[in-house]
Amino acid sequence: MGKKRRLFTASLATVVLLTSLAACSSGNGNNKGNDAGTGEATESKLNIVNGKIEPPVTITLVRGEDPTATFKNGETYEDNVHTRWAEETLGVKLETLWSSPSADTSYDTKLKLMLSSGEELPDLFVSTQSNTTNMFIESGKLLDVEEAFEKYASDTWKAAMAEVPEAWHPFMMDGKKFAIPILRPTMGTQSPLWIRQDWLDKLNLKAPTNLEELEAVMDAFANQDPDGNGEKDTIALEFGMKDQFIGYPIGDASWIFGLFGAIPDRWYPGEDGKLEFGSVRPEIKTALEKISEWKEKGYIAEDIALHDFNKVTENVASGKVGILGGEHWLMVYPGSLMLATNPTAMYAPYPLPQGLDGNNMRTVATPYTGAILINKDISEEALQAFFHYQNALYESYNSEDPFLFKGFQEGYDYLTKDGAVIYDQNQIPGGKTATMKYTISGAQTVYQSKLLEASLKRAKEEELTNQELAAFATSGIVSIDNSNPLEVIGNKALLVISTQSEFDVPEYFQGPATSTMTSRNELLKKMQMDTFTEIIYGKQSADAFDSFVKKWKSSGGDDITTEVNEWYDSVK
Length: 572
Description:
The protein is an alpha+beta fold. It has helices spanning 12-26, 81-90, 106-116, 130-139, 146-152, 155-162, 197-202, 211-223, 254-258, 283-296, 309-317, 335-341, 380-394, 406-409, 448-459, 466-470, 485-498, 515-536, 544-571, and strands at residues 32-34, 41-43, 48-49, 52-53, 57-65, 92-101, 124-127, 172-173, 176-177, 180-183, 193-196, 235-238, 267-269, 275-277, 321-324, 347-350, 362-363, 368-374, 415-417, 420-422, 504-505. The two termini are 43 Å apart.
């Protein structure tokens, strides 16, 4: 793809499209619908002219502060280029009542306090924590969104949701839908095999294609001083296992267990089609025995039981890690930290080696990051204004203008100069800021199949149509034109990952915690982590796994399995 692409101005067709969409979603003031709070019929008062609600309608919300979000020009969540665009272009005024940091659970805590205190809820808000979401669903204070979604969501948004019907499951109760999932692209969340390419080259090694070759590479990385400092201080294989074995975007261990035919801490169908808990599959015993052997041989860090996301990224940044699993953006972070002190270091993504008896499995993320919860007492005008807003963002997937939203993105996500589009952080006044993080959802709008098709074409450096380029309109990516070398590596990882998608194991249980989970999960989790850790550290033989499985089943595991399958049967 060329390095420059002309900026297309919004065409009359685009204006007409948005106007038509607005008329469909709101009825242009002529439709009657159910009042969101009372269930009584009421006439919409929205008046939409050229895609803009006149007069503007206010939507109240509260926000979790994304630690990676940046602002400039004195802007805040309450007032920024996106909120002004929404009001000026769509006639939707976003009024943030309060915001709180999400990284340290402050936002989540405030949401719970808002509910327990009986405080009046805003029109809508985002929740990313399942326990908090379930509390609101069970409170009876949320809107059953199914009717509103069917009535007001655009065909494009509906089609995007129809691709991943399971995304609704965590937000349902008694067959009703009480939140709208915030979709995420899942391709790229799986692990390829990330290997230090400079170490392979130095030791004249090839990337492993099977378990035996993997062990040979690990042995060389542990014992042949690949970093050349004369010390035996490298970590051949890195992963996180502090409190959990899966769920770390950097340091994923699912693929390691998957080499032996099972994944812990994940519910997925067994041979009989019923969901089973991967942690108690017999293949886990074989995996633990092999991991213990690797630790004894020095392939794994002595303090591996303390490794979590932060520790793994710290070790990667220090240049000590040879092999690990992680999402496709690993070279962007923490790889960039490694390059800052060692510019010649480089990770390359490779396909997973074939495991024992031809086994391979790995986790793939759920197709949502959280959900938008809507107050059951929201006014009909505010409800329709919300859908008008979301529908407009989803129009990027129908647009021939890659910069459809330049009203809030230009000068922030990109810059135009002499007819060329510039993504270079250093050339954008005040630096680059990802305006998608200012939206209600705090994320890009996702239509998985279309975004995946465009992403793979971009990864192959094929020419993209303007409509395919528009798929990235709300993504906040560093560059569309592959000018960022670390993104190019991420693109290559996408291609590698896509060749082994048959190994992907999603989490099939997406329901709220079952009654037995609520009372027994902490005990069962501790029992599991203690047993697995002691086997890995050689304090118990692998046979301890058999005793763990029996105790897990009798201590509530069998009851949980029954409850999980009752839920699964209800949504299949």
